[in-house]
Amino acid sequence: MSSSAPLPHLSDTSAFQQEWALLVECASPFPDARKLAALVRAADAPRLVALAEEHGVVGHVAARLSKLAVPRELARALLGRQRALAVSSLRISAELIPVLDRFFREKIGALVVKGPVLSVQAYGDPAMRSYGDLDLLIRQRDIRRATELMIEAGYESRVPLSAIDAGRIPGQYLFFKPEKKLIVELHSDCTLRYFPRRLPVEEFFERQIRVRFDAHEVPALSVEDELVLVCIHGAKHFWERLLWIADVAALVSRQTGIDWERIRDSAKAVGAERMLHTGLRLASVLLKAQLPDHVQAMVQADGGARRLAEQSSKWLPAAGYAPIGLFERAALRLRMRSGLIAAPAYLLRLAFSPTEEDWNEVENKHRLTDVVRRPFRLARKYRRDGKS
Questions:
Q1: What does residue 311 show for φ and ψ, rounded to 5 degrees?
Q2: DSSP line for 44-80
């Protein structure tokens, strides 16, 4: 492994070519051991660790390289971060069960999405993937009571009860417990606005499964619905992190009993076929995920998904530090939906649906102000060059 030098900025993807190639191989469900060994010798340890952290795949790198002879500097760095992932997983799992119990006692249905449950479903290990919060899906009608319960449990709510009573819909209902540095996000069919069509929440609850997690069985989305959600989440963020693609690849590779017909129906119900195809294409082309022949044919036939995957691959190595301009973002949103009416309708809904960042606290009864403010705020936000 080469000697390290001052780290270049992550937007300089040419400086991370060796490390990026190694990262991709580690994130694949089917890594090539010989290729890994050769790439490790050519990579720089600090650059590799920094890139892996930004892409959320430290656990993947540590797992793949644990069977190889790697330099002591890299081994120490990966071991430290592995331990941090394990501690974080234990801390979050210790809080998950009490939260679910509170909701259960109040007859509030809740499904765990992404985070620890996805880590178990995709990798068989709750500490494999990085996650910094808990995400739960509940019905919109239960949001107010759930917020009261979270406040009673010592959480600070970013969305006040007055805003809930006024019918305002945030990007998510966020709760923070300062002493534990723990974040819980509640989502509903109203907050998941990046679904092209409103999420059929009752169907998701009907198809729920139980996932074994830390000696408990927790309610979660079916594997099929989780895959669709993961692909929509990746599309929402323009697939800027390798973790999201690795999740898709791991999920379809590890879960051998997937009902692909149900996945197609689930994606179609929310208008996310192209988002699903893009995620599957990235997983198969970049990470060697193996799809059934009929699924591969369906993905290959979607030219829009191919173009989106190709574009995403260009800025993916920079982990969000390569700027995507405002107009390019708008064009990508249009391509995520097909149809002369559906595509612009999706873009306009996202552009004019205010979240808590757009709310006018002084004129909290005048929602038109929030709607008008949103596109201007987005224009200012995405005029910046990459991450700060």
A1: -65, -45
A2: BHHHHHHHHHHHT-HHHHHHHHTTS---HHHHHHHHH
Query: Could you tell me the CA-to-CA distances from 226 to 97, 128, 202, 221, 233 in Å, in that order?
Result: 20, 17, 15, 6, 10
Pick the closest to residue 237 from 341, 158, 326, 329 (CA basis): 329
The CA angle 51-55-56, to the nearest 5 degrees, is 115
Pairing between strand 182-187 and 173-177? antiparallel
Paired strand residues for 110:
138
Give the domain ranges of the chain.
13-70, 84-221, 223-322, 327-388
pLDDT digits over 190-237, tens only? 999 999 999 999 999 999 999 998 788 999 999 999 999 999 999 999
Q: Which helix (H) or strand (E) holds 297?
A: helix 293-301
Q: Which of 20, 16, 13 is nearest to 4 (CA)?
A: 16
- φ, ψ of residue 2 to 5 degrees: the values are -70, 155
Long-range contacts of 208-212 (CB under 8 A, 24+ apart): 208/111, 211/112, 211/117, 211/120, 211/121, 212/120
CA distance 136 to 115: 10
User: How far is CA 317 from each of CA 52, 154, 240, 242, 380, rounded to the nearest angstrom?
Assistant: 10, 39, 8, 8, 25
pTM of this prediction exceeds 0.85? yes
- 259-297: pLDDT as tens digits: 999 999 999 999 999 999 999 999 999 999 999 999 999
- φ, ψ at 141 (rounded to 5°): -65, -20
Q: d(Cα 29, Cα 64) in Å, to the nearest integer?
A: 10
d(C-alpha 310, C-alpha 328), whole Å: 14
Which pLDDT score is estimated for 362? 47
For residues 346 and 217, give the distance between their C-alpha atoms in angstroms, rounded to a whole number: 37
Q: How far apart are CA 378 and CA 351, in angstroms?
A: 8
Rounded-to-integer distance, Cα 356 and Cα 340, Å: 30
In angstroms, rounded to a whole number, what is the distance separating the alpha carbons of residues 317 and 12? 9
CATH of 84-221, one of 3.50.50.60, 3.10.180.10, 3.30.460.40, 1.10.10.10: 3.30.460.40
Write the CA distances from 117 to 43, 102, 206, 282, integer angstroms: 32, 19, 18, 22
CA dihedral 114, 117, 122, 123 (to 10 degrees): 130
